[in-house]
Structures are given as C-alpha cells and as structure tokens.
Amino acid sequence: MSSPVTEDDNAATRRAAAFQRIRDAHQTEVAEDYVELIEDLIASNGEARLVDVAEYMGVTHGTAAKVIQRLQREGLLHSRPYRSIFLTDSGRSMAADARRRHQVVMAFLLAIGVDERTAEADSEGIEHHVSEETLAAFERFTRRSGGGTG
Q: InterPro entries given for it (predicted)?
C-alpha cells in the first residue's frame, strides 16, 4: 500500500522540475550563443570563420572547434576544414528565436528602469532561461509601458 502524496512531495517534484528546466536551458545556451554569433559574423563580414568565432566567444581555437563540431552533428550548421561556417535552416531558426528572446528581455529590463549597459549584460543570461509564459508577460508589460521589443 503506497502512502498518499504529501505537500512536501509536491514541492520536491516542482523543485526537481525547475532544476531540470535549468539544466535543459544550459544545454542549449552555448548552441544559441554560437549560432547567434555565426549569424552576426555572416551578416557583418560575409562569412563566419572559426578563428573569428573563437575570438568573439573568448575561447581557444580548440574549444570553438569542438563546439562547432557538436553543432554540426546537431544539424545547426555545416562547415568544412579551412572554410567558412554556415548555418542550416535549423541554425538560423535557433538564432532568430534566441535573438527575439534577447530583444524582449532587453526591452523589459529597460522598461522597468534598468540602465542599458546592465540590461544588455543581464538579458544575455536571462534570455536562455526565461519560460515562454514569462517572456509573454515581459512583452505585455513592455507594450503597456510604451517600450518596444526591437
């Protein structure tokens, strides 16, 4: 005979679910940052090179190469040795979604009075962890306060 679920069990289940969501967000955070950067490099330079990705991310060439290989396996980009890096449709979609979330969070932080420099730094982390429900609330608040989302 099993014991009834207690309130403590429910709290533990909710807490575990929240931690799992954070772990899941961490797994996609690096991918999102890389595809956004690659898209930006292509837009501004006409290409994204591994050396530039490593420099902008502040990591070694080897670290950037490992991430690029992982993203290639995940179908987000394609590259060849000594060639530029290109995003797949999935990679472009991920970059656009991450950019949209960043813009919404940034607009929200500015709307509540956070200075631009701090809002930019904070939105870079928050964008990866914010739920769609919270993001929608940020958008509603920003629209009501007269701010824009980009």
A: DtxR_MntR_Metal-Reg, Fe_dep_repressor, Fe_dep_repressor_sf, HTH_DTXR, Iron_dep_repressor, WH-like_DNA-bd_sf, WH_DNA-bd_sf
pTM of the model: 0.76
Q: For residue 78, list its beta bridge partners.
A: 86
CATH number 3.40.50.300 is the correct assignment for the domain at 8-88: no
Q: Are the C-beta atoms of residues 50 and 65 closer than 8 Å to each other?
A: yes
- Are 110 and 150 in contact by the 8 Å Cβ rule? The answer is no
Name the residue among 129, 140, 142 with its Cα closest to residue 32.
129
According to CATH, what is the number of the domain 92-145? 1.10.60.10
When pLDDT is cut at 50, 70 and 90, the band that residue 150 belongs to is very low
The domain limits of the chain are 8-88, 92-145
28-41: average pLDDT: 93
**Calpha distance 2→78 (Å, rounded):** 52
Distance CA 150, CA 103 (A): 6
